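User: Please predict the structure of the protein below. I'd like the answer in structure-token form so I can feed it into my own downstream comparison script.

Assistant: Understood. Taking the following sequence of 227 residues as input:
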Amino acid sequence: MTTNGLQVAIDGPASAGKSTVAKLVAKRFGYVYCDTGAMYRSVTLAALRENVAMDDTAAIIKIAQEIHISFEAGDPEQRVFINDQEVTKAIRSNEVAANVSAVAAIPEVRQEMVKEQRQIAAQGGIVMDGRDIGTTVLPNASVKIFLVASAHERARRRFEENQAKGIATTTIEELQKAIELRDQKDSTRKVSPLTKAADAVEIDSTHLSIDEVVDEISKIIEKKRNN
């Protein structure tokens, strides 16, 4: 498809399927995909590898300012690099997942990442997913989606994802508890909390397949493109 440069923001809680859906929507429209969550996970991983304490804000900010995060197309998933070293699997570890909310809540880290995200989106023809894209990063995005699903369904999906990737994982029940805690942290943080933008369309994916969610979002984009 030819593009007319829309900015598409997809927000929602952890494991709602944002990244999977965002990649497929981007592919369908020939848009660029920007995985903002992977950027915060990369900063977290870099801090953990340098044995930085998660309450050492100054050290984490310094890492965010100094590391270079880049993406490359890959099959079946986009590849993520920190300073040219691939970290695609490493950023999905349970340790990173347990600490990324704390890192993402640091205002200066968010400022650094948002700056990069806006530069990527400036040309349009972009699909970006995260927790504050429609409210903070791209407040003027043409299309805003707020994707939700039940905590149990999100835990089940994360469990299956981890198994498929060969990542050692905990039970679905433990994952559900971790997801509910993550929701609470993301929704109550002082800087850019997880909030549905006033002009976002909410889609509940609990009982929808990935293809059905992609179709729903595609209809919204097509309608906006044709207006």
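That's the full token string. The two ends are 17 Å apart (CA to CA).
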